[in-house]
Design a protein that fits this description.
Blueprint lengths: L1 H25 L15 H14 L2 H4 L23 E3 H4 L3 E4 L5 H4 L4 H10 L14 H4 L4 H13 L11 E2 L3 H4 L18 H12 L1 H5 L19 E3 L6 E3 L16 H9 L11 H4 L7 H4 L4 H11 L24
Antiparallel strand pairs: 1-2, 2-3, 4-5
Helix pairs in contact: 2-8, 10-15, 12-15
């Protein structure tokens, strides 16, 4: 009997080893990097800069932010150099991710195809699956020329010499993450004349749903709650909580009573720098929403986003955006 059990145990171990080897070789399941050529025309680079800085906001995550100020502006000396921390407490990440350096100092040995595969399909140069905090699933749905333009601009950014620490993911996410990357399915960019379709495209590029859709404890979007807000973040130094807003067109708890002008002006009113350091009370109502970067979008693009958001399913979901803010006294103090 003991011999049989030993043999059975050995078979189980061999099956587990073989299964693990198959899994590791099978995933991530995306093709090898393609041969691509990034554009060099001035208009393509200008488009890429607009997307990277104000729509896809790549440099918001791939820089360090100064949360002593409203909306955590980028520390200029870290622009594109990575180093921003995402973890369980600050953003619900199942592990610790330090954003990598995406300036030419770190990417000089990458081919254009390797860079495209990482951004649009989620597999790094070394074959490692990227965690979808990097919204490659979104980017793989955009127009290919937009992604190429964005990457072309990234290649022109000033080099920053920095070496952020590698990520650590909790089990079983360190295995699950290998199954998430997928082959890009690029499509055409809708005409701005088709305001709703173009607005949906811009919402995908800007990743609005990633922060404005609440998640369960496994990091999965809650069914029926798309764009309904409530995703919780914490101030990285002070721990104060902030929850994303409901941006569905519900009249009472979303943006259903907002006009297009109010929506667009909310962004454009925050365009430009503000170096004022917040008081502790103001920090309790600070936000991770990169308002000043998104404020750089054109009024037309912001208006298209509004037009699309008006078409999504209204969800009744009242969000207490700043649960750690102190209630005001009766005299307003």
């Amino acid at each position: 009997m003991r011999t049989f059990l030993k043999l059975l145990g050995g078979v189980v171990v061999l099956v587990l080893i073989a299964g693990t080897a198959y899994f590791l070789n099978r995933f991530p399941d995306v093709p090898p990097p393609r041969a691509v050529t990034l554009p060099t025309a001035p208009e393509a680079l200008a488009r890429g800069e607009y997307l990277v800085r104000h729509v896809m906001v790549c440099t918001v995550c791939h820089s360090q932010r100064d949360f002593s100020k409203f909306a955590g502006p980028i520390r200029p000396e870290t622009f594109g150099g990575g180093g921003e921390r995402f973890d369980h407490d600050t953003s619900g990440v199942p592990g610790i991710i330090i954003s990598p350096n995406i300036t030419p100092a770190a990417l000089r040995d990458w081919t254009d195809g390797e860079l495209m595969r990482a951004v649009a399909e989620g597999v790094s140069r070394d074959g490692r699956a990227l965690f979808p905090l990097m919204p490659y699933v979104n980017y793989g749905q955009l127009a290919e020329d937009d992604v190429l333009a964005a990457l072309a601009y990234v290649r022109t950014m000033a080099p920053v010499e920095s070496h952020p620490a590698p990520r650590t993911l909790d089990f079983p996410m360190n295995l699950i993450v290998r199954t998430i990357p997928r082959e890009a399915s690029f499509g055409p960019r809708p005409s701005p004349d088709d305001t709703v379709a173009y607005g949906q495209y811009m919402v995908t590029a800007a990743g609005c749903g990633d922060c404005h859709t609440p998640m369960d404890d496994r990091g999965q979007p809650l069914p029926g709650m798309t764009l309904a807000g409530g995703f919780e973040f914490r101030h990285p130094q002070l721990g104060y909580r902030v929850r994303s807003a409901n941006i569905t067109p519900d009249a009472d708890t979303g943006i259903g009573q907002w006009t297009q002008a109010q929506f667009v002006d909310k962004f454009k009113g925050l365009e430009g720098p503000d170096d004022r350091v917040l008081t502790d009370e103001e920090q309790r109502q600070n936000t991770v929403m990169p308002w000043r970067q998104y404020a750089g979008m054109t009024r037309e693009d912001l208006g298209a986003i509004y037009a699309y958001l008006r078409t999504v399913k209204p969800v009744i979901h009242r969000v207490n955006a700043f649960p750690d803010a102190r209630p005001r006294a009766a005299d307003g103090r």
